[in-house]
Design a protein that fits this description.
The complex is a heterodimer of chains A (about 250) and B (about 350).
Chain A: H1 27-40, E1 47-51, E2 66-69, H2 75-85, E3 90-96, H3 97-103, H4 105-113, E4 119-124, H5 154-157, H6 163-168, E5 173-180, H7 184-202, E6 207-213, H8 217-220, H9 224-238, E7 242-246
Parallel strand pairs in A: 1-2, 1-3, 3-4, 4-6, 5-6
Antiparallel strand pairs in A: 5-7
Chain B: E1 4-7, H1 8-18, E2 23-26, H2 34-45, E3 49-52, H3 56-68, E4 73-77, H4 79-94, E5 99-105, H5 121-125, E6 136-138, H6 143-160, E7 163-169, H7 170-174, E8 176-179, E9 208-209, H8 216-236, E10 240-243, E11 250-253, H9 257-271, E12 276-281, E13 283-285, H10 289-293, E14 301-306, H11 313-320, E15 326-330, H12 339-350
Helix pairs in contact in B: 1-2, 1-6, 3-4, 9-12
Classes of the chains: A alpha/beta (about 250), B alpha/beta (about 350).
Chain lengths: ~250, ~350
């Protein structure tokens, strides 16, 4: 009994409220990683998070730091407003693919373009989750959604948008990486990416974006296990994981 | 202090700096460009923040973020740009964030024109965006009044935790007048912004800036809390001026640049033996209904003059409570009414010149 020790507990970066996400959704894992990284970098009590519109709209309740809830797609503009007047704070946005890749693409691009010293956490599950499974800019070709009932057709609905690749072309961006959380190994890699992004922000080195490949079992019409497999088999081939831009490469040596 | 000769847009920009504006986020649009141009230089010189955003939508959402972090913030634009800002303005009202928005109005609808107009009256006084809210809206007629009201407006916004709109037109933005930037303005009793989400939770619980209330009873309570603020504005913070009203037989109702022109019209009428007053709303929300109750019994007619097709006219009809006959004269599209045509309209209403 004397040898009982705590080997794992919920991060103090999260509040005690139950999360509002569906079973099998990876938002919970990503929330945990963000919270752990903020605590490990000792910045939780100087952080402002910006919640967006979508499934994660309520995460202003879940993160234990100051939070602002933004209009649909505008989180990077709200983050810009905050960071410019509170440059010593750590500012992040948490946005889905409908929010960032569609209605908020201008705000995402221009916050990177200005080199805002903020971190964007971009969660890509290839669908509009909260509104009930409509087609997103990231929906894969042939993928059935409530607004592409016959499967996405590139002739009329275009090809899925690759955000990490696109953001990496913006001269003002400092660090862009795409990660996945489909198994423990990748969860650890994703945490490392997040830590790198927030470390860059802490050092005032500019704009960082981490794209997460995520799942939506409910709107994909799959079990959580099948959803993870579908993400690995279909999303990752189209959205390859890896570092797309790193202006700080070589600095550590 | 001594007066300096300044262009309206620049004087309004300097007034914001004098008021302690921490940050300005804007996007170019005529006829207000000199305002952000001036601030792009002078905010930095004063250790403040200036950001040219990628759009009006982004600019107002930057204002939201900075206001939510407890800063004194301003944006400016002109009519079509203000229409784009309505999303963020509604969110600010919903999240109870202070901020100052200057609207240097131009003609519409659509791209309209770039000449002076008052055709945003309804956009300004009815909230403008989605949901049940209003903006405390001030309509100065001179550069001195614009400067004084802008300086005070930051306090008003902080006091009510609500955006304040400064409603001027291209004429005020573009003209030059001598102004005293250091004239004392009323100070409001302000509380510390202990609600701000500025990131520093080392000595307090977390703060949340938010306009989402999914439970209808919670949202109803929130709506009623907001309504109480707007009722307080209506009850205690109407502003207006009555000009030349003693023994006046007719009153012109006009605000902003048009009331300025009406001052010349009443001089023309005076030479013709007509006693004409001016009822000048200074707040267009709350609308100064009190002014109509305080008109002398000598006033038998009202003439509403606007640079619109009659957007304020509805408010005059409500405030008049069917007491006096109301006439209307408006020039639109960027055409500014002349004093002579206003005087002629008055003569037409009262049946010609008076010769004893």
């Amino acid at each position: 009994m004397n040898n009982v020790k705590t080997v794992y507990k919920k991060s103090i970066g999260l509040t005690d409220l139950p999360l509002s996400y569906c079973p099998g959704c990876t938002h919970g894992i990503i929330h945990k990683l963000v919270a752990e990284v903020l605590v490990e970098l000792d910045v939780l009590d100087k952080t402002v998070g910006v919640a967006s519109v979508g499934c994660s709209v309520l995460n202003y309740k879940f993160f234990a730091c100051d939070m602002q809830q933004a209009a649909h797609g505008r989180a990077p503009a709200v983050a810009t407003g905050i960071k410019r007047v509170r440059p010593d704070s750590i500012v992040f946005t948490y946005q889905g693919d409908g929010d960032l890749a569609s209605i908020g693409i201008a705000e995402a691009i221009h916050s990177a373009h200005r080199g805002e010293n903020i971190t964007i956490i971009f969660v890509n599950n290839a669908i509009y989750g909260m509104t009930g499974g409509q087609m997103a800019p990231t929906t894969l070709i042939g993928q059935k959604t409530t607004t592409s009932p016959n499967g996405r057709d590139e002739k009329t609905q275009g090809l899925p948008l690759r955000i990490a690749e696109m953001m990496a072309t913006i001269p003002g961006a400092t660090y862009i990486e795409r990660v996945s959380v489909h198994n423990p190994q990748h969860v650890n890699k994703a945490k490392k990416a997040l830590k790198k992004a927030f470390t860059i922000q802490k050092a005032n080195k500019g704009f960082t974006l981490i794209e997460f490949i995520s799942t939506c079992p409910v709107n994909w019409g799959m079990t959580p296990k099948d959803a993870v497999d579908w993400a690995v088999d279909n999303m990752i081939p189209y959205y390859p994981l890896g570092v797309y831009k790193d202006k700080t490469a070589g600095e550590e040596k | 202090m001594s007066k300096v000769l300044m262009k309206g847009n620049e004087a309004m920009a300097l007034a914001a700096i004098k008021a302690g504006c921490d940050a300005f986020y804007g996007y170019p649009i005529t006829p207000q460009n000199e305002l952000p141009e001036y601030l792009s230089k002078h905010m930095a010189l004063n250790g403040r923040i200036f950001v040219q955003a990628e759009s009006e939508v982004a600019a107002i959402n930057m204002v939201y973020g900075a206001a939510g972090a407890g800063a004194r913030v301003m944006t400016s634009s002109s009519s079509p740009g203000i229409a784009l800002k309505q999303e963020g303005i509604s969110y600010m009202a919903g999240a109870e964030l202070p901020g100052v928005i200057i609207n240097v109005m131009r003609g519409g609808p659509g791209l309209g024109g770039i000449q002076p107009s008052q055709s945003d009256y309804k956009q300004i006084t009815r909230g403008g965006g989605n949901g049940d809210y209003y903006l405390y809206s001030l309509a100065p007629e001179t550069l001195q009044e614009a400067v004084d009201l802008i300086k005070e407006s930051f306090d008003i916004a902080d006091y009510f935790r609500n955006p304040v709109m400064i409603a001027v037109d291209g004429l005020i933005g573009q003209m030059m007048e001598p102004v005293d930037l250091d004239k004392e303005v009323p100070k409001w009793d302000l509380k510390p912004k202990n609600w701000a989400a500025d990131g520093d939770t080392s000595k307090r619980e977390k703060n949340v800036i938010n306009s989402l209330y999914l439970d209808p009873y919670d949202l109803e309570n929130h709506n009623m809390k907001l309504k109480a603020k707007f009722d307080e504005m209506r009850k205690n913070h109407q502003r207006y001026e009555l000009v030349n009203m003693e023994d006046a037989e007719i009153a012109i109702v006009a605000y902003g640049s048009v009331s300025r022109i009406a001052r010349t019209a009443i001089e023309i009428l005076s030479e013709k033996g007509i006693k004409c007053g001016i009822l000048r709303p200074i707040t267009i929300f709350p609308y100064p209904k009190l002014a109509f109750k305080n008109l002398p019994s000598s006033v038998k007619n009202l003439l509403v003059v606007e640079m619109s097709t009659g957007q304020m006219l509805d408010d005059v009809i409500i405030a008049n409570e069917c007491r006096l006959p109301i006439s209307f004269f408006g020039r639109v599209g960027g055409v500014v009414p002349e004093a002579e045509e206003i005087a002629n309209k008055v003569l037409e209403i009262i049946g010609g010149e008076k010769h004893e």
